[in-house]
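>> Question from a student workshop board

For tomorrow's exercise we were told to take the sequence and the ligand below, predict the bound structure, and bring the output to class. My setup keeps failing. Could a helper post the expected result so I can at least see what it should look like? The ligand is flavin mononucleotide.
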Amino acid sequence: MTATVLSGRRVVVGVSGSIAAYKAVSLARLLCERGAVVDVAMTPSATRFVGPLTFASLTHRPVVTDVLELDADQQIEHIELAEAADAIVLAPATANLLGELAAGLVGNAVTAIACASRAPVVVAPAMDAGMWTHPATQRNVATLREFGYIVIDPEVGELASGLTGIGRLAEPAAIVDAVERLFVRTGSLEGLSVVVSAGGTREPLDPVRFIGNRSSGKMGAAIAESARDRGASVTLVAGAMSVAPPRGVTVVEATTAQLMREAIIRAAPDADILVMAAAVADFAPARASQRKIKRSGDNLQVELVPNPDIVAEVGEMPDDVRPFLIGFAAESDDLEANAAAKLRDKGLDLIVGNVVGGPFDAIGSDENKVTVFGAEGPLTDWPMLPKRQVAERLWDLIGDRYRRRRTEGDGGPARTKGRRRS
Ligand SMILES: Cc1cc2nc3c(=O)[nH]c(=O)nc-3n(C[C@H](O)[C@H](O)[C@H](O)COP(=O)(O)O)c2cc1C
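>> Workshop helper replied:
Here is what the output should look like for this input. Compare the format with yours to find the bug.
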């Protein structure tokens, strides 16, 4: 089998109780043919239309029909699938399923997987025209779009009732195309060298203690993974991270601000784009004790000295070596003013601002709500999204800006540097 963007991807197909359930058989077959590992989940109603056996024989995998089922290893099946999924496609999605998803009701295996997963979700509704055009359905669809779900509108055609109208499930090939588009993005980074920093730094106090921060590295890891999937050659400069770095990227470990500076300054001149998502400590102990500091009963004074300002240093590099530069601003208040000042003062091309320390705290979360700022002000108004989807949107924007800079030929930093390494 020739490799496709779906090769090895875990795709969950969720089937609900529509007459169009038979088309989910073709959908599952097409996904398998493109190399995806397909797991099918069915609502109880769906099993009245097509037998689970059909899907099991096609996919060579068990089919989940009961939200209360455990798998052979006594694990909760719908959670296992939700966590493993690279993409979820709900087809056909009944009016009832859309309502349940929008309301967060998880009474069957399909809704439970969709709700528990952070993978992107494609929804292909199928129903009677009256149901589709009903305000309740349209409201539910709008809610799902707000969640970041990709909704493939149904087509006009003959419906189960015998009437002609809107509501027919999109063709399986069109649904597969939408799933593939999740992995091949228009903003291709083919041929570009991308450096991403991620995670927090740990500034040593003594051989066992450090001053650190709560950064998990999840945002930077998602940005690196997404750049990899768009064809970039990616280097991840990794501080302390609570997640594994994505496969297929070059990892340079740099757990202190000094090490991170060395790694970034070394990598920047060869990078086309540098995304500084790491939480680098602003201060470090002036001296790290060679021996473990003992409890003495007295107060302990630790002198902190400023760490190098890595982003600013890259921002000041001469134009022929400075990469297209994106910084992050984690602010507890006055995000817009602080982000704008940082963009200007540090010579950044774009800055991604997020709020920390409030009712929602992006640090460590699987989701994030960010605003991207350019010199002209805020550029985005994105909802709270899984970090991987934030990364996708970021690359759409960064790729666009980078290419624009290149075609404008303003002699600025946006140019392909790949050739220099050969
Ligand atoms: C023959 C037949 C075809 C149906 N087709 C659809 C359909 O295409 N879309 C839909 O929303 N409901 C359809 N329904 C109604 C759903 O099966 C019903 O709302 C069910 O409760 C959906 O359950 P589920 O969403 O849990 O799968 C159909 C019912 C029958 C009897």
